[in-house]
Amino acid sequence: MKTALWLYLFLFLAFFDLHAQYPILTPFAMSLGAGPAFIGWMMGMYSLTHLPGNLLAGVLVDKNGSRRYIVFSLVAAGALLLLQAYAQLPWHLLVLRAASGFALAFLSPACMTLLASLSDDSATQGKYMSGHGIVHTLASVVSPAAGAYIVHRAGYSGTFSTLGWLLIATGIMALVSVPKHSPARVRAGAPKTMPAPAEPSPAGRKEAKTSRRYYLLPFFISCSQGVLFFELPLSQGQDGMVSTGVLLSLMSLGALSTLSLMFLNRLSPAIRIAAALLAMALCFFTLAAFTGIPAGAVLFLLGAAKGVLFPAMASLFISLGNGGHLGRTFSLQSIAMSLGAFAGPVAAGQLRGYVSPYFIAFVLLMTAILLLPPKGDSLRSAYHPGLNSPAA
């Protein structure tokens, strides 16, 4: 539990640092002379460079543990933010954001793997993942507004320097606090010889093929989030940093409101995921079609749907990673999210003159709903066998 508390602290500081940049990156790029299409590529490039890092993280975290990669991600990303404070041209920002994307690609798989390895019990793992979601949301509640406020007081250079030193300090704290080896690996030990894996049956091969389809879910969800983070600052204008930060904080408050409802974990993951996807899709449709409705109320509901969705998805990927392959599983999840975060802003930047980006997000989420199997029992068993049984 002590390791989990330390990790939650590091995650809070890291997420605070990252989310504080969301309302200021677009205005900063515009101040350097970048247009909407270039901004879309800049945001997408950050996610595209996640891919090689995710591919490396999946293998390296399983082999060497999470500690060194957590420290590397935090310190490297902090150093790049210090350089970002001195960007003078749009392509400077593009290169630095691309490098930051690679550096931070190791953080999420390493943290999620370490959290999941703190216990072998699925119920306890679910609690750790819920705690991860709560910490993430708490950081994202205050950080967008805080980032906009710091820019207002210290300017872009001062803000990026402050956030960079915060990440570096967090990496140093992780170096002295995170254990070198995961507790689950220490408890289980490493057998010298491993039994040969049994040949999977046709039913097992069919189940594996079905499970891979669920990696498309984080892709479409991340696409929609990328569209939101691209369009929201642009719709508020270059002088709307504070309003953008407040709107993003409202969305995080909505997520916190549902993450704190622990009784929702008793519901079937199938029900939670389907309902959350539908609610998010309707929120994006409202933003596209009904501009008279206050955006703050819609984003609050959108955040509430996210608070239901992400813990259920975490249970899915823990179940898919059974057998000591959590690093690879979370790496594939991160790859899917990175591809989505790249495709979303790029598509929104290219199509913004023809259709509302929010409508693009609506179509993406409705497509994600179509990926769910028609039978509730098959979805429930695919996500977590026996999750709602009395024993669980």
TrEMBL record:
Any one GO CC term of the record: plasma membrane
Location of region: Disordered: 186-206
Pfam families from the UniProt entry: MFS_1
Topology within the bilayer: Multi-pass membrane protein
Residues of the Major facilitator superfamily (MFS) profile domain: 3-379
Positions of transmembrane segments: 69-87, 93-116, 128-150, 156-178, 214-234, 246-264, 271-291, 297-318, 330-348, 354-372
Main location, first listed in the record: membrane
Localization (cell): Cell membrane
Top-level division of the source organism's lineage: Bacteria
Single GO MF annotation: transmembrane transporter activity
Entry keyword set: Cell membrane, Membrane, Transmembrane, Transmembrane helix, Transport
Descriptive protein name: Predicted arabinose efflux permease, MFS family
Species: Paenibacillus typhae
